[in-house]
Amino acid sequence: MFNKILIANRGEIACRIMRTAxxxxxxxxxxxxxxxxDALHVSMADEAVNIGPAPPRESYxxxxxxxxxxKATGAEAVHPGYGFLSxxxxxxxxxxxxxxxxxxxxxxxxxxxxxxxxxxSIMGDAGVPLVPGYHESDQSAGRLARAAAETGYPVLLKAxxxxxxxxxRLVQNEAEFGDALAAAKREAVSSFGxxxxxxxxxxxxxxxxxxxxFCDQHEHAVYLFERDCSVQRRHQKVIEExxxxxxxxxxxxxxxxxxxxxxxxxxxxxxxxxEFLLDADGAFYFMEMNTRLQVExxxxxxxxxxxxxxxxxxxxAGEPLPxxxxxxxxxxxxxxxxxxxxxxxxxxxxxxxxxVYLQPPPESRHVRVDTGVLQGDEVSVYYDPMIAKLxxxxxxxxxxxGRLARAxxxxxxxxxxTNISFLYNLATSEPFVRADLDTQFIEKHHxxxxxxxxxxxxxxxxxxxxxxxxRMEQSGQDRVRGDDxxxxxxxxxxxxxxxxxxxxxxxxxxxxxxxxxVVEVGSGDQRRFRISAxxxxxxxxxxxxxxxxxxxxxxxxxxxxxxPHDGMFTLFSPAxxxxxxxxxxxxxxxxxxxxAAAFAAPMHGVVVKQLVEAGVMVEKNQPLVIMEAxxxxxxxxxxxxxxxxxxxxxxxxxxxxxxxxxxxxxx
Length: 667
Ligand code: ADP
Prior knowledge:
Elements: E1 4-7, H1 11-23, E2 27-32, H2 40-44, E3 47-50, H3 63-73, E4 77-79, H4 89-97, E5 101-102, H5 107-112, H6 116-126, E6 133-134, H7 141-151, E7 155-159, E8 168-171, H8 174-192, E9 197-201, E10 207-215, E11 221-233, E12 236-242, H9 249-265, E13 270-278, E14 284-290, H10 297-304, H11 308-316, E15 333-340, E16 342-343, E17 349-350, E18 353-354, E19 357-359, E20 367-371, E21 378-379, E22 386-394, H12 397-409, E23 412-414, H13 420-428, H14 430-433, H15 441-444, H16 446-450, H17 461-481, E24 502-503, E25 506-509, E26 512-515, E27 518-521, E28 528-533, E29 536-545, E30 548-553, E31 556-565, E32 568-573, E33 576-584, E34 605-610, E35 617-618, E36 623-629, E37 632-637, E38 642-647, E39 654-655, E40 662-666
Parallel strand pairs: 1-2, 1-4, 2-3, 4-5
Antiparallel strand pairs: 6-9, 7-8, 7-9, 10-11, 10-13, 11-12, 12-15, 13-14, 15-22, 16-17, 18-21, 19-23, 20-22, 24-27, 25-26, 25-33, 27-28, 28-29, 29-30, 30-31, 31-32, 32-33, 34-36, 34-39, 35-38, 36-37, 38-40
The protein binds adenosine-5'-diphosphate.
The site of adenosine-5'-diphosphate has 20 residues, from strand 7, strand 9 and strand 14.
């Protein structure tokens, strides 16, 4: 085994690799860019070397600087992680030339899988099943069109040098072919500088099923079963699971053996993944081979009980594979959800900002969180905005999925937009629960995953209202306890002499304001809230324990989780996640605005408008400033009569979560 290795990567994967290295007694060297001086992976390493400015071209992608860092620290081997230099044959060669072990396959194997058409030729010759189509060198438009006709429409045109879904076009019929070819070529040239194309039969409902393989330097090869990564957005994986639902033992063996055939065809060493398209009829076809450790490797670790990074280090150090094929077994089921700083409602636009509050769910035998960030860290524009990988395991799919949904509802992040509620919607959606998977999953179930209209969500308005009422009562009680216990004036409930208590709060969903008036009826055990929302009136009661709301609405009882963040709330119910905010604070929240903190910006956002002049007398509840954050407008109101003595920002200014917006002096 090595004495010291260098990890040429950052974030969660660098931390992940270091955990295993430490377990094996191997010393670790981190590299870091100027943007990562305070990053978790740097503090976890035994030594760390600065390799330059934030842009990856000048640091993490700079092979020479990595080699220099190895020499300076005496690291014997480099683990490239995934991304960056992990599939760069030139870098693998550079390591060897400098007597440094590259923890990955031989450069020739990386090279062989670099071109889609060359990879297909090698795999076809080795007897690995291919999607019917054409991958020869004659690139004339006539030949390609004939290939498409022979293959049979619909076909997919793919850039030979492609990746990340670029240079790919679906062609439905002969009439579309000419335009589609021109468009695919244009995209391929600008992205890869190479417009060679291949033609593939377009499978209408395939699943993405990939097989984990491992080879050592002693001719041994095993497969560690499959992962289903069908749920994708723009050809990027969103949730992965292992094993693949509905897999038969015989299909598993066939795919596993085909994957080993593929690996052997290129004299593979180390960890690799062979990606297949699995058709509805059980036929499977080679798509590509990833010559590195995959992001989603933890689901394989969870069901096999193996540490794949340990396997990588052992193989690279020349040891034989730790286990043989017949010693490997699947136990239970695992999911991985990629927690991203991004906005699913805005075409998954990456988000940047500060992780003002960050609390992952507690880790256990069932829940694993692989991350490279801490509370207070920035998600910058320079790198992939993945915050963490949330991995859950249990005896079967249903239970593992239940754990995933629960863990997602317990994942607390404030300060920037994340995909957590989208992932929750996905994990609890009926077709996903049924394992009705294919690569069009997100497009097909768009309406239920994105809640683009509020129609379905308004049903949960009474739950939101009940939560706000109980929360208000709780904070009222907290206040009363520290004050005059018996004074009704200290109660924040809408206390009225001889009159039913009435609350006229309004709730915002997706930027639309809903009046949700509430009347308290009955008393003692019989007390109920009569809540009217979206044309319906219900009788509700319940109890709030921390973030858990035990609700009874017209006798229907349920437990849901509500998480406050950034001045808003996310309600996680079996129907999905719903974000709401208090539009008018008539549910009693106004008292909490008496301190200066109430004028802190709820989160990263933009000041939209100042509604009053500094120094002018305002009345209690008068709107002072409008802020926009997470596509919702938040109105900051006067807590009581008084004056704003100073505004710290102007309209159009960006503000960070927690920054004071204005100074208020009560009359
Ligand atoms: P890239 O390398 O650009 O990511 P891939 O060849 O890996 O492209 O394909 C990416 C995704 O496109 C696959 O995961 C699958 O969802 C879809 N895809 C690829 N080939 C086909 C095909 N022949 N039929 C249907 N879908 C396909």
